[in-house]
Structures are given as structure tokens and as C-alpha cells.
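Pinned message: reference record for Glycoside hydrolase family 1 protein
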Amino acid sequence: MTNYQFPKDFYWGSASSGPQSEGRYENDGKGDNIWDLWYKEQPELYFNTIGPEKTSQAYTHIKEDVALLKATGHNSFRTSIQWSRLIPEGRGAINPAAVKFYNELIDELLANDIEPFINLYHFDMPVVLQKEGGWENRKTIDAYVAYATACFELFGDRVKKWFTHNEPIVPVEGGYLYGFHYPHEVSFKAAVQVGYHEMLASAKAIAAYRALGKIGEIGIILNLTPSYARDENNPSDVKAAQFADGFFNRSFLDPSVLGEYPADLIDDLRSADVLPSYLVEDLEIIKNNTVDLLGINYYQPRRIQARENPHEWSVPMPEDFFETYDMPNKKINPYRGWEIYEKGIYDTLTNIRENYGNIPCYISENGMGVEDESRFIDKQGQINDDYRIEFVSEHLKYVHQAITEGSNVRGYHMWTFIDNWSWLNAYKNRYGFVSLDLENDGKRTIKKSGHWYKKVSENNGFEE
Ligand code: BGP
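Predicted structure (C-alpha cells):
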């Protein structure tokens, strides 16, 4: 029996986001974001045609949901402030109903000793700004910094943990390479420009936070997906894995933590003629505004090999530099199809310790999506998700090992709290500690994993 005890004051919690949990509320002033717009244009793209208005309706369930956070052992919780709720037109007037809602949520969390971790951008570009080019347009950065500043001014007296973005590579991939986010363009050059603008916006928001003299920490949440070469002894595979790591991870990790872009990535992007336009002074801003705290989302690794065949697409793509391969005998989540590789979380934390100054970090997402989880409901209506308990505990063991070896890990947030709506996948994959019954007025029931997590949090660890 091993005792996995975590450091004092460890943050136990889960993560969600405004657009995935709040719901719409037509008369409460929220503007449209790109998910609302895309749903109006092409509802058939959304799984079971369920759009972004059908959520757990967190907007009207503050007390009930905070009580559930308590009942599942949370001492911290991440969500985001929806840009299009707070500032419906993207820039300009603030929506008073939004201020009231976020104030009530934050106050209720604090009254229950639950530390709010607040993220700003979670894939939810206001439509007005998207019509002007969204992150492709440098002017969006000013609108974003104004929104960030409004958040700091309105809520920064109580919120002490801020994040500028969740997974900034995802709008790059989804919106400008692989078609799963609006505006579903395919342009490597636009993709790189979008990523660069997101990064500069992050640094400028950090500068704005510090200029206000607020006492708290500000960071960024990155999905750090370790890239493993098929053959560590094959230089072409290693080079391909290095590109994937550079493009998907270090393009945000390095500027966010070290204040500069990796030289190998710049060389690769230059060779594809996709370097972004920038101003020389931007680089000073990025250098001077690195993060205090890093959130790490980890789901699965990338298995990479060198390209075997020339590419088949008509435009340059990141895949000119690498291809993924299907590793034989890998462990798979049978209910979602993703690889499960628990050691990836340890390798990522070790990389942060060894190469990124052991900056304070926390696991900001990690979780197991399951299709049709209703098949695991027992007679009492509880989902017996032993697979999720195993998933979380196996990852926590590796987090524990990293901490034992000196990693500066401050907490663990599972994705997610109550089953939430997820972009084009809607409710295809359920992730929560708490189930949501869409057929039954959004009824919430704590899953077996939620009860288990409470004990883990109370004991600040577990024995196994
Ligand atoms: C992460 C996002 C979350 C959530 C999660 C699960 O990348 O930060 O917002 O969507 O993935 O995704 P899915 O429901 O598509 O499995």
C-alpha cells in the first residue's frame, strides 16, 4: 500500500468554462459569440444538433452548483468569464447583468472556501470582432486587453488566480487548419498569425494586470501534449517530433514562460514562409510579461514519425514537417478512442521543472470523456464510473511522483465538474464528476467519482 500524500494547501478541483456551462438567456444582454453564430448557420455540424444554449444552465444555478462543488470536495474551481456576456459587442459597453452574475458566482465560491481560478479567453470570440477578422486582426488585441482590464477591475479584488487563455493553440488548429472552430479556414499563414496575436494579447493582458497593482497571480493554460518520436534513434523521427513539440507546445510555452520564441520553430516557420507579421516592440512586451503560474491541460500524447510520403494537400500545412503514427499496443480509452498514457503527465511536469525554471504550475485539465455514460447508471440513478476513478488516480500517482522529485505543482483540476456542452461535440463525450440529465430538466447527480474525489480532497491524497 502506498500513501500518495500531496503538499499542504494543494488545490483540488475541476474546470469548466462560461460558454460550456452558462446557457444563453436572451433577455440578459449576452451578445453572440462564434459558437452562437455557427449554430445559426450550420446546426447540423453540432452533435445531435445541440447548440451552445443547451448547457447545465450554470447562470441560474449558482447556489445549487456551489453546494455540489462542496459535496465533491472542491477547494478551487476554474471557469471563464464570457467575453460576449460581459461586453456583448466585443468592445464598449459592459452588460450589468453579467457583472451581477459573475459577482454572485465569485462571492458564493469564496463564501464556501472555494478559490476561483478565472480564465479569460476560452474559444469564445464575440461575433462583432470575428467579422473584423477575429485573432487574425491585430486590432482584436486592443479589444481583448480592454475586456481583460474590465475583468481585473470588476473582480480582481476577490479573484487572485487569473489566466489569459485556455489552450490558445486550439483556435489556431480548429479555426485555421483543421476546420473544427469558426471560421474553419485552411491557411497555415493565418494560423501562425492568429497564434502570434493570441500570445501578444496574453502578454499585454499580463502587463495590464500588473499595472493595476492587483495582488494575485496571472498565468496561461496550455494543452501541453508531449510529442514522442516513433524511434528515438532515428534523427528524422526526432526532428519531426521536435517540430510538433515546437508548433503545438513551445509556440506558447516558451514566450509565456521564458519570454521568447524557440529558434528552431522560427527557422521551420520561415522555411514554410509562414512567419507572422509583427512589430519589433512586441518582442519586448512578450519578454517583459511572462506568467506567474502555468496551467497544464493533459489528455493524451502525440506519437510522431517523419513523413514517409510527400504531402497530398495543395497548400502548406504543419504536416509538411511530421506525421502522426498509430502506435501498436497503446492503451485506449474504449469510450472515447483517445490514447491513455499516464506517464505523459509526469514527462510534461519534468520538462517544466528541468527546462522552464520549475515555474509554479498546476494541472488545469485532465479527464476521461465517455460516450453514452448512461449505460453505467445503477438503480439509484448514480453513474458508477470506476474507469474515471482509475483514470484520475493513475494520473495523480504520476503527478505525485513529479512532486516528490521536486516539481512545483500546486493543484489538480479535473475536466470537468458537471457534464458540460463541448463545442461541436456538444454532449457526445461526458466528462463530469456530476452527471447532467438533459431529459429531466438538467437534473444533477453526483457520480461515484465525485464521491471518491471528496475523500481524496479531505485526505489530501489517497492510499493504494
Ligand atoms: C479541452 C477543452 C475543453 C473541452 C475538452 C474536452 O481541449 O479545453 O473546453 O472541450 O477539451 O473536449 P471534447 O468534449 O471534445 O472531448
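Pinned by admin. Summary line: The two ends are 5 Å apart (CA to CA).
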